[in-house]
Amino acid sequence: DVVTERGAVYVYDAIGSHEQVAVAATGTGREILQPILDRLFSSTTTSSNKERAFLVRDGNFVSAADQQGSSLTLSPPVATVVDCSEQEAVSLLLRGYRSVSEREIAVGDNLVICILRREKGSKQTLETIMKVQSFPLKQH
């Protein structure tokens, strides 16, 4: 998003509906990868706090006890953005995919990450820049 300078992830279904989410997995290994990404991107992972990572809840979090009887008035239970740098996001994605590649052979041996960034050019145009990175998944 050019205005907020944050990345965004959207998921689409077969009938064309879409939704903004914090993290998403599709394709081979998605059943294994989605909970890994959920956990990796919801924990504090900064280099200054690696010893004491803890679960970070967003402002919409409602405990299970408070949800009873009020399901029609709840806000979305999870954040739809992740607060980390581009380098941290790539590192966490690589960590998650390496875990999945050890358990699901069909995932393959390499991870290719494409990062799209929209730069402010002149007032009339916005230039999109794509950076492609490739990483080996198997560490033999």
TrEMBL record:
Q: Which organism is it from?
A: Attheya septentrionalis
Q: Which InterPro entries match?
A: Ntn_hydrolases_N
Tell me the protein's name.
Uncharacterized protein
